[in-house]
Amino acid sequence: MTPIKTPKKLIEVALPLDAINVAAAREKSIRHGHPSTLHLWWARRPLAAARAVIFAQMVNDPGYERHLGRGVNKEKAAAERERLFKIIEDLVLWENTNNEEVLERARAEIWKSWRETCALNKHHPQASELFDPETLPGFHDPFAGGGALPLEAQRLGLESYASDLNPVAVTINKAMIEIPPKFAGRAPVFGSAGVSPAKNWFSRGYLPHLDHPGLIQFITFRLADAIPHDVLKRLIEEEADDLERSRSLEKLLDHGYGECQLADPANAEIVQSALLHFNEQRYRLLAWVIMPNHVHVLIETLKGHGLSEIVHSWKSFTAKEINRRLGRTGEFWQREYFDRYIRDERHLNATVHYIEQNPVKAGLVRRAEEWRYLGVYWYRESAGETPALPGLEDWSGARGLAEDVRRYGAWMRDQAPSWATA
Ligand SMILES: C[S@@+](CC[C@H](N)C(=O)[O-])C[C@H]1O[C@@H](n2cnc3c(N)ncnc32)[C@H](O)[C@@H]1O
After folding, report:
1. Is the sign of the CA dihedral 306, 312, 318, 324 positive or negative?
2. Hey, whose CA ends up nearest to atom 18 of ligand 1?
3. CB-ligand 1 contact for 36 (6 Å cutoff)
4. What is the pLDDT of residues 365-420, one digit of tens each?
5. Which end of the chain, C or N, has fewer beta carbons within 10 A?
6. What is the per-residue pLDDT across 222-239, written as a single tens digit (0 to 9) for each?
7. What fold, for 216-376?
8. What's the first-to-final CA gap in the chain, in angstroms?
9. What is the pLDDT at residue 35?
């Protein structure tokens, strides 16, 4: 059998690990446009890491290899590696996910290495089949899971094949790798569909931790006229139970009483900018929604900045700005605000869900993503590996998967009537 000449790959020699690690960690908190929003999958690899390792596995190391008679001397190889590192450092940035210039540079390197490999093996008896310089090798992932690897291989110009024993993973891969390329470049069915109404549905790079010394706080504040004073007074007098009272208040708020000044995008923009302004300095913003007459915010408080100071600064700044804009004076926000600290992860999940779904529940949009003044920076961390199929009663991963499938099924069932009438 004729041996195959295999140049050493970059990944076998060196990688810019710091850049890859930073990008991979940052990605965990990115929601808008990330495949994890399609469906959460345990053990999904970060796209940045997947992209970097596939590139480094496809690209030949520049170092000299005497037995193959290829490569360059030590100094030149070091300089060349620096150049390749720069490509990886650009490649792993989330902002460059669809940057064709960066991707093209990476694809060109992959082709160059492949052609070098083909040239080395041109006398191989099966060269025409195995070492065609015009056809890159296919990428096969038989354990594709959430599909990070085949997706990134496809992005780097390789033909991708994905499979998995688990039908959920297969569905994810079909939806992500097989179907989209068939429709790539086609005009949207609805003329306006290319314009995302949810520009602010994005995330910034940090990982919130439940064990942070600061508490996580759910805060609600409302416009001065959001709840008529007599109704509010009656509620406070009649409803002894704190929780029941706040539920009744929520319901009232969603009716949209008053002038609903925050339905005006310019006013909502002012509030949203204020929430973002001191993010990471005075608090960490986890989620927020600006409704027509009230605002919900979920933050992690940081040392040295009390909750009332934070809320006061949001309210006073935005009241002044909006009043100035509207050419009026007087009370803009209702004086009191509601706050509740988050007890545990379940409570956190429920609160983020509540925030996300508030515009839907209030009948303002059909899907949360359609509401412009809504953001979730918080990432639902999922841990552990999953077995191929659910069903092992004593294994928490399997139970998680089964629950996920059930929830997804229930969601589809609930949504189906609206699709039928759409
Ligand atoms: C670690 S996960 C893969 C994660 C994936 N690289 C990603 O980024 O999401 C391993 C996958 O292997 C699948 N798997 C386990 N045993 C398998 C088998 N015998 N045949 C095919 N797939 C299997 C599991 O269902 C799971 O999706």
Report:
1. negative
2. 165
3. no
4. 998 888 989 888 765 443 333 333 333 333 334 344 455 555 556 666 676 676 65
5. N
6. 999 888 777 777 777 776
7. Alpha-Beta Plaits (3.30.70)
8. 62
9. 84
- Encoded amino acid at 336, one letter: E
Report the distance separating Cα 90 and Cα 48, nearest Å: 10
Residue range 98-108: mean pLDDT, rounded? 93
How is residue 401 written in tokens? Answer: 């998967």
Cα 158 to ligand 1 centroid, rounded to whole Å = 20
Q: Whose Cα sits closest to atom 24 in ligand 1? A: 388
Distance 102 CA to ligand 1 centre (A): 30
- Separation of alpha carbons 404 and 397, rounded Å: 10
Domain ranges of the chain: 10-184, 216-376, 387-422
Torsion, Cα of 254, 260, 261, 265 (10° steps): 60
**From ligand 1's centre to the CA of 10, what distance in Å?**
26
Q: Does residue 371 contact residue 198 with C-beta atoms inside 8 Å?
A: yes
Mean pLDDT for the chain? 81
Q: Give residue 322 CA to ligand 1 midpoint distance, Å.
A: 53
Q: Is the pLDDT of residue 202 over 50?
A: no
Instruction: Write out the two tokens for 128.
Output: 């025409």
- Ligand 1 pocket check: which of 36, 165, 173 to mutate, most ligand atoms within 8 Å of Cβ? 165
* Structure tokens given for 38: 């399609």
| Predicted local distance difference test score (pLDDT) of residue 317 | 94
